[in-house]
Amino acid sequence: MNHSINNTDRPPYGILAVLMIGAFISFLNNTLLNVALPSIMTDLDVETSTVQWLSTGYMLVNGILIPTTAFLIQKFSVRHLFLIAMGLFTSGTIIAGLATMFPVLLTARMIQASGSAIMMPLLMNVLLVSFPVAKRGTVMGVFGLILMFAPAIGPTLSGWIIEHNSWRMLFHFITPIALVIFILGFFLLKDKKEKVNIHLDGFSVALSSVGFGGLLYGFSSAGTKGWGSPWVYATITIGVLSLIWFILRQSKLKEPMLNFKVFKYPMYSLAIIIMMVVNMAMFSGFMLLPIYTQSILGFSPMESGLMLLPGAILNAFMSPVTGKLFDRYGGKILALTGLAIMTITTYSLSNLTFETTYSYLMLIHAIRMFGMSMVMMPIQTNGLNQLPRRFYPHGTAMNNTLNQVSGAIGTALIITIMSTREANYASQLTAEVTGQMTTSLEQHIALESMLGGINDAFLISAIIAVVAFILAFFIKRATPMEDEEDTSDKIVSNHSKQPAS
To answer: How many C-beta neighbours within 10 Å does residue 192 have?
Structure first.
């Protein structure tokens, strides 16, 4: 392309193909590593509390950098940003594959994350400016296929690789693909961008980093350290205060780093709220089902991954279908249908027993993911559709940032509910024992308590899903609105055309 991407021209399919493949690789790499954590602990001689930083650190870097992408997208061309993002991701992947010490591996993961953080907002912004509102559902559905298919195959692929090779092969496998995508981007992306005279406010970056970083770290730590830790409360409090300062500062800046005026558009605000609520509810299935199948039913990690695979694949391949349905019928009917399915299936998972079958779990999870496919992308697309064009970078950055934060909150909430209820059940069952406590009885009480905690956590997740279902009744089909600047410009323009009296 010889011009900036414009939705009045033919959509830049070449650019979109390169961006989507790059995004797919970065998403895939993130899900590959989770299964490998036990192997990394053994090989590099680190404990669970240490190795989890490979996931927490990745999430923190994303949470810190994503808010800056609104500025980066406005300042630089798609080609420039893509090459930086893919270059960082590829460099981190190479270093991680060669790492022999944990600090080196953690640093490499953070370098990867810095590239991945730019990739998704960049791709979403290109999609928004390249297609008219009437076709956005379909194209966002294809994007959803890419987004969902990576985590669908990630755990199973990772389990197979780990069974036959070292964990380093997870990075060696990605490296040549990432290099090829970088080279393709270098030669195929030709878009140019006029020089934009905007500057990044350094103090806003610092406040955003401390704010979002503090929230993400605090809620993530609550899942492992527990809510009794002063460190958890301290980091969350610092994060909240920094965010309040950050928001107040953005309202006074002529060129805000992240423009909170996006929230004056009601369908966008509603979409953000529903997305955050759904994020919090959906983490229960991803976290609790593997714990249940491995710790209580005794399945292997590979079997757990295979149990989740049909649902994940169904969710991925339904995404283009729901995209087309969204273009035809709008987001409300899809969201209500999907959230009803999610609520019913999540409630069904709150009644698990020691006799629950593998096939039942696979079926319920698949139906749950089918419902989720009707919720995530349609709601998000409907919200973004209401924003004026100049707010697209800020809208996509806000979306991705709050998805990270709500995911961290959901994870902490679910783990807290499960562990608290598990401890309560253990105390009750132990108190009911009248004879001598044996080892087998202790093990049974531990499993019974864990099962009760998991069921209660699923029940709370179902209640959270009901909240999202009620909110979905307020969804209306969104169309782009003119913002105050555009309106005032038109008034001035029309006034200047009036003949002098």
So the answer is: 12
Residue 492 has a pLDDT of 38
Mean pLDDT of the chain: 82
Q: Please answer whether residues 123 and 20 qualify as being in contact, where contact means their C-beta atoms are separated by less than 8 angstroms.
A: yes
CATH number for the domain whose boundaries are 1-197 = 1.20.1250.20
For the chain, what are the domain ranges? 1-197, 201-256, 261-481
Rounded distance, CA 245 to CA 236, Å? 14
User: Are the CB atoms for 264 and 270 separated by under 8 Å?
Assistant: no
What's the rounded Cα separation, in Å, for the pair 355 and 89?
44
CATH number of the 261-481 domain:
1.20.1250.20
Closest by CA position to 59, among listed 215, 244, 171:
215
Record the pTM: 0.76
Spatial CA neighbour of 117 closest among 89, 159, 76, 153 = 89
- The answer to whether residue 4 scores a pLDDT higher than 70 is no
Cα(124)–Cα(227) distance, rounded to whole angstroms? 36
CA distances from 363 to 157, 317, 319, 360 (A): 21, 16, 19, 5
What span, in angstroms and rounded, lies between the C-alpha atoms of 35 and 301?
Answer: 8
pLDDT for the residue numbered 285: 67
Which residues neighbour 28 within 8 Å (Cβ) at sequence distance 6 or greater? 150, 151, 153, 154, 157, 174
199 membership: H or E segment, kind and range: none
Let me know if the fold of 1-197 is the same as that of 261-481: yes
Which tens digit of pLDDT belongs to each residue from 344-391? Answer: 999 999 999 999 999 999 999 999 989 988 888 888 888 888 888 888
Is 395 in contact with 387 (CB distance < 8 Å)? yes
Residue 248 burial by Cβ neighbours in a 10 Å radius (0-12, 13-18, 19+): exposed
